[in-house]
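dumping this here before i forget
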Amino acid sequence: MSLYLFMEKDEVESKKLKNEIALIDADLLDRNARHPNLALMKISNYYKQKGFNTRLVLSYEEDFFNNPNTIFLSKVFTNTKIPFNVTDIPNLKNGGTGFKTSADLSNEIEHCFPDYDLYDEYVKYNVENLEKREKTFDAYKKFSIGFMTRGCFRKCEFCVNKKYDSVLKHSPLEEFFDNDRKYIRLWDDNILAYRKWDKVFEELNNTNKPFIFQQGLDIRMLTQRKVDTLLDSNYFDDRYIFAFDYIRDREIITKKLKLWAESYSATGRRGHGYWGKLYVFGGLDVGHEDLHSMLTRIKIIMEHGSIPYTMLFEKHTIRNRTKYGELYMAIKNWTNFVPSIMSTTLMESLSNEDRHSLKKQEVLFKLMKELENINPEFKELFNVSFKKNRKY
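structure:
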């Protein structure tokens, strides 16, 4: 049912005169997204240049459906929740990777400079009314954001972006670079697979701004030259992020981890006590084999002086999809809290009564014992230590 049914016909018609574009960041409203929506920022500036007023919708309770010319709704995550009646609004257009199907932005909007002021009211409200720290919103206030390349040839089964067969140049840096912002965040899918990757790094380094490829870097594509370039670059906070998604890549990733660890340690830098971070994907095929794969990859990563960061497929429903759901979540909580993964084993983490109730410990230890009976290697994996197992 359309929300317009709650409005008088004459009122609806009068609202059509409003020269306004409303923008809904569904991820922000449902899950307090940590990053601004780039597509909405581009849409906002595009319509501002056309003479429209644009505004970010800060609540579904807001009277945003009082007929601005158009309402744009975007979401990145598939499990972001949207009130059922919102998508019934006649002048609403939705898009983003969070939808099964959605149209791409027009070429004009795709290559429009982002409206970096779009989230100002949201940030101001949180700082002044909810007393949140300004630093919490650095992603909204301090980063230039964009893509210099698009695409990846890997076509991983869990990835929402499989439409490309290679990595292509997408935009020049000036298309989104704001010199008043301290940092640069890139959302490129696989920069190290781009044939002119070195030109991109040269352009970024010439800005003298720290930058980061937030999606992670394809460690399988590393060469000594690429490693040297990465380590010589003005990389944001020395936070290098890679990924180890499949155990079948064990041989090549072990080789590249060794190259990375030896090169990093040779610089004499301490980093953050580890050389890098690797996303560890799990939960697509739930069960003991998937858990064994995850914990084995975590062990390999720690052996090479880096730390894992667990990414679970549909993490909010994984508890209901497998009897091992609580263990998946416990592994995620262990790895994704840096002090925990650097100082404790999984077993030690689960034994911490401050973090897990006795009832939950009982459930988890029972599951772990069952897994050890299926495969004795689990016992070692449950007791892997970053400090003791680290070789580099």
